[in-house]
Structures are given as structure tokens and as C-alpha cells.
Amino acid sequence: MLLGFLLRRAVVTVVLLVGVTLVSFLLIQAVPGDTMTATLSEQALQDPEVVAAYRARWGLDEPLHVQYLVYMRNLLQGDLGVSQQTGRPVLDDLLTYVPATLEIALPAMLLSLVLGLAIGLYAAVRHDRFGDHAVRAGTLVGLSTPPFWLALVVLYVFFYLLGLSPSGGRLSTWIVPPEKVTGSVVVDAALEGRWDVVWDAVQHTALPVLVLTVLTVAMLVRFVRSAMLEVLDADYVRAARAKGLPTSRVLTAHVLRAGLVPVITVSGLAFAGLLSGTVLVEQIFSWPGVGQYAFRSASALDLPAVLGVSLFVAIVYTAVNLLVDLAYGLIDPRIRLS
Amino acid sequence: MSALLSLDRLSVTLHGGQRVVEDISLEVPEGEIVGVAGESGSGKSMTASALLGLLPDRSSTGGHAWWRGGGDEIDLLTLDQRAWNRVRGTQVAMVFQDATASLHPMLTVGTQVTEHMRVHLRMSRRQARDRAVELLDRVRIPDPEHALRSYPHQFSGGMRQRVAIAAALACQPRLLVADEPTTALDVTVQAGILRLLEELRAETGLSVLFITHDLAVLAALTTRAYVFREGRVVESGATEQLLFHPEHEYTRTLVAARPQADDWDEWEGPA
């Protein structure tokens, strides 16, 4: 059963990924201007020889469908092409930028889940009383705060006023970065046993994680609250209370469990969002993550890089969706795959 | 004689001031099944909720609910949360109208029958499981061992209600408050549940406060009954007396409103 489900999913995923490359490929062509005008200088563009050489170098002199087929053929061999911006293989670029994003997205997501469940459940239990109103006001503020503004404010407060945190980047400039193994500075430094470096790196993640968490928590709390409100009135929760179970057990084993399905869905989407596009926050904290890479590749019309990022985002979303669907089955026996 | 439970002029006012139960006095003697009949909105479910401290948020109560099941006489209406959790399940338990809704859809039957045993009776997982097998067997669930590992949706409606009854009885309560437990079931399945309740009463001395709007059920199961209307008791007494020689006009209307077999003779087809 599970195997069949995974197989069907795999087929759908492949079709989806092909679709994503095709659409990204065509969209880039539709944009006025091309990578040449973005990369070459005015003077170089005047020189037909340079232009011809450039076009031949990147295969731009071939017809469109040939360009696409060549890309797909290479893709099947695991070759994502070379970025016209960085001059490095796109795969290497992704392997550099993705771990950096993970380093802030993962802690932000875990924190958001814990806080979101706790605060959302609290608000639901205190429904329509002061605690609930306070939480709702708080989430409204959190949701209406622009990420880049919040990033600037925390930077101003924690770096400039209090001097508690670094201003950006992944490590203090005087520290020799650890050898790249996983791509996460925190993990790599820990592997080398350089705990002072680990601490320095963790301090650098603090503010970006804080900003991402505030935004994600605000949204999660709202979902958790309304999901739990629906469950709190259910007969089975009354039945659990009628059995004389302690409130803590009623809330965790009965209420939380039942309200988890919609929460998982939203959490999945939120996590995929964190992984694939927090450009502004990364920009402000000089964080070399996927968002920055995507932004720079797109503004340079760097076709291989844009396609690479699109593929990455598509894979993230399908993987997260798959995990969410599998989680449903774990949580709710009624939707166990059959 | 002092009954197991005596409601003394119980009243319930919801947040917002709506009074849903007014001056209800009622007695449930040890080892008896007492009926409460009334239309929806007559305050019978609110009375049941009050007996388990499960009234809606911010409602207030008046009067007394004297409970003599735990040694000393206590007033249930004065209990705080902690004290309630010592009474619920172990002294007073409840079965709800629709077992599909009152059993948690994502927890196994085993969990739902054993979790409060482990809290109240401090049983080990194993002890609780063994007792759960006995309980399920007691309420006539076939293959109890397998049932413990199953989820509620894998049972029929009648079987689900039996599971709910087993869960309610797990910690040996003295009083079972049954709020329309057979309303959602087919007539034949309903008869089985009623028989089970009567057996439990006869064998274990369990008292039952049986709430229903179905007078036939009342007649089959209870010896004493109360008729509720708009939050008040309009008539009470021996069930037989109530049904065959109703004194109050409302009771007469209720009895007359029962569907009769000969009603069909006058029926002229769909309008």
C-alpha cells in the first residue's frame, strides 16, 4: 500500500519537476534582455566577436528547443550546468547556499512549532478572555510587521544599542572558517571540536532565527488556536474530562492530537517557505543563503542558476508535501493509506 | 432513606444570564435506574453536565447536588477542578449520546479504556490492559484483545457505544449518567444496550441516571422517572404510573405524541 503510494508520488514528482524546468526556462526567455546584457559591459556588447564568442560559450546560438534538450540531457546526468554569474557549477553553488539557509530555517521552524503549539493552545483554552485577546493582538502585530523592517529593528537594538549580537554574516571576520563538510558552519565547527567557533556561529544565527521565528510563530499561533478551538468543544474532549483525566493529559493526549492535522499542513508550507525564499532577511543579515542566490541569479538572468533554484524549490515543496501526507497517516488512523 | 445522589433545587444559569435549569430536585437511589424524560431544550443534558462539572464555561449554579457515593456527603456543585478529577470517572461517570463523537477518533480503544485506570487506580500498563479485556468482555465486545488495538471507526455504532460504556465503567463508578445513549442507534441495537445497562445494574449495583426523550425506552428500563420541561420538573413518580396515568397535562401530551402503530391507518401518503 505504502509502496504503491510512494511510486505514484514519484511519478507525479518527476512530471512536476520537468514542468517546473520548462516553465522556468520559457519565462526567462520571455523577460526582455538576456544574460549577455546583464553580464557583458557596454563596450563588449559593441564587439560582434565578443558577442559571438559569448553566445557560443553558453550555447545561446542554438535554437531554443535544442538549448532545453541539452539542459535536460545534462540534468539527467546530475549536471545542473555552470552559473554564468559565479562561473561555478550550479550544484556546487546550491550545496554552499542551501546549508546556510538550513542553518537558520531549521531552528526557526523548530522554535516556531514549539511556541506556536504552546501559545495557540493557551489562547484556545483561554478563549475570549484576556489571555486570548492578548495573544490575538500579538499575532496581528507579528503578521503585519514587514520582515525587513523587523530585521532592521532587531539589528538596531541588539547590535547597535545593546552590542549583544554581531551585525551579520555567518562568522566573525577574524575566525578561520571550519573545513566544509556539511556546509553548516555550526555543525562543521562542532565536528572539528572548535567550540568557541560553534558559539560564535550560533550567535550569528540568533538574530535571523529570531526574525524568521516571529513571523512564522504569528501565523502558526492563529492556525493552532482555531484548530484547537474546534476540538475543545468536541464530545470526545468532554468524555476525556468526564473520565477524570488531569487537564494536562486532556490537552496533550486528546486536544492537541486531534487538532494537529491542519497544523501540520500549515507548518509544512511555512517550512518550505522558509527554505526557499527569505531574501529580505538574508539580505539584511548578509546571510549567504538560497534567497540571496536566487535573487542575484534572477537579476542577472543567469539561466542555469535560476533553473537550479527553481528545481530546488520544487523539490523542497514536493518533499515537504510528501512528509506532511505521511504525517497525516501517523496522526490519524482514519486516513492511513489504504 | 438517603439516596446516592440528591439534587436539591438545582439551577443552572449560562454565561449571558439564560437560566436553563430551574429548581430541579431529584433523587437517584443506590442500585436503581432513574429516568429523565423531556424534549430537547428541557434542561436534561444541562443537568447531566452539572453532575460531572462539565457545564459550559462561565455558567453558574444554584442549589445543591448531594453526593453520598464517596463516604462523606459532599456537594458536587462546590468542587474545584482537582476535587472534580477525583470524583469523575471513579464515582460518577458519563456516557454520551453519540459514541462516534465521544470516542477520540485517533486513539486506540485500548488507550481510551485504560488511560484513566492508570491515573485513578495507579495500575501498570499490564494490569490496566488485563482489566480492559475483562471490561470489553463484560460489555460483550467480541475478541477483546483485538479490539484494544483497534480504532473506534473500525466498529459499528452499537459496538462503539459498548466501548464507551466499558470506558465509563473502568474505574468502578457508583453512578453512570447516560445522556441519550441509544438515540443514535437502530432499535435492535438499542435494545441490546438497554439490556446491558439493566444487567450491569442487577449484577454490580450500579446506579444509572438515564436521560432520554423516548418514552418507550423509559418504560423498558426505569422504575422511577422525572419529566422535564423548560428546565423544571413537571411530574415525577413510578414510571408505569407516569406513562399510563399521567397527571400533568404536559406528560399527557408527551405520551400522546408517541408514534402509534395505528397512526399509519390515517396516513394518506406524502403531502
Residue fraction in strands of chain A: under 5%
How far from one another are the termini of chain B? 55 Å
Number of helices of chain A: 15
Report the strand count of chain B: 10
Helical content band of chain B? 25-40%
Strand order of the largest sheet of chain B: 6-7-8-3-9-10
Task: Give the biggest beta sheet of chain B.
Answer: 6 strands, mixed
- Based on secondary structure, the structural category of chain A is mainly alpha
Multimeric status of the protein: heterodimer
Instruction: Supply the number of helical segments of chain B.
Output: 12
Category by helix and strand content of chain B: alpha/beta
Helix content of chain A: over 70%
- Greatest chain-chain contact: A-B, 23 and 35 residues
**How many beta-strand segments of chain A?**
0
H/E element string of chain A?
HHHHHHHHHHHHHHH
What Rg of chain B do the Cα atoms give? 19 Å
Unreliable residue runs of chain B: none
Shape of chain A: globular
How much of the sequence lies in strands of chain B comes to 15-25%
How is the secondary structure organized here?
The complex is a heterodimer of chains A (338) and B (271).
Chain A: H1 2-30, H2 35-39, H3 42-46, H4 48-57, H5 64-76, H6 90-125, H7 130-144, H8 147-161, H9 185-191, H10 195-232, H11 235-242, H12 247-276, H13 279-284, H14 290-299, H15 303-331
Helix pairs in contact in A: 1-15, 6-7, 6-10, 6-12, 7-10, 8-10, 9-10, 10-12, 11-12, 12-15, 14-15
Chain B: E1 5-13, E2 19-28, E3 33-37, H1 44-51, E4 60-70, E5 72-75, H2 81-87, E6 92-95, H3 99-102, H4 109-120, H5 125-138, H6 144-149, H7 157-169, E7 175-179, H8 187-204, E8 207-212, H9 215-221, E9 224-229, E10 232-238, H10 239-244, H11 249-256, H12 263-266
Parallel strand pairs in B: 3-8, 3-9, 6-7, 7-8
Antiparallel strand pairs in B: 1-2, 1-4, 4-5, 9-10
Helix pairs in contact in B: 4-5, 4-7, 5-7
